[in-house]
Amino acid sequence: MSLVNYIDAAQQYFDDLVIKATDDELFAGGYLRGHYDLAVGYAEVEKLTISIDELNETVEQSLVKAYRNGELNEEDKTLVARLWDEVKALA
Q: This protein's superkingdom (predicted)?
């Protein structure tokens, strides 16, 4: 799968959450989407040529930093991690 197709699939995944997700999943999905979109946007602005693995690594670094800053409770971290695994599986 190309990076562009992966990004498109991930965006569709996040859009689909609006229809089927619980309130907690919507929160976690929105939180995760923010980290994902930030990583994609940075790569686009900097005109970086990155791989799917590099994009995922950037997102994961951002999430780890946020977790260390205490941005989420344990339940939310677990939910974000589950959704992140689903997004990564799209590749």
A: Bacteria
Do the beta carbons of residue 26 and residue 76 sit within 8 Å? Answer: no
CB 3 within 8 A of CB 55: yes
**CA atoms of 32 and 14, how far apart (whole Å):** 9
Residue with tokens 């670094």: 61
CA end-to-end distance (rounded Å), the chain = 6
Residue 22 pLDDT greater than 80, yes or no: yes
Quick one: which of 47, 79, 44, 40 has its CA closest to 62? 40
What residue has token string 């309130």? Answer: 23
Q: pTM of the full predicted structure?
A: 0.90
Q: Which residue has the tokens 């690594």?
A: 57
pLDDT digits (tens, 9 = 90+) for 29-63: 999 999 999 999 988 887 878 999 999 999 999 99
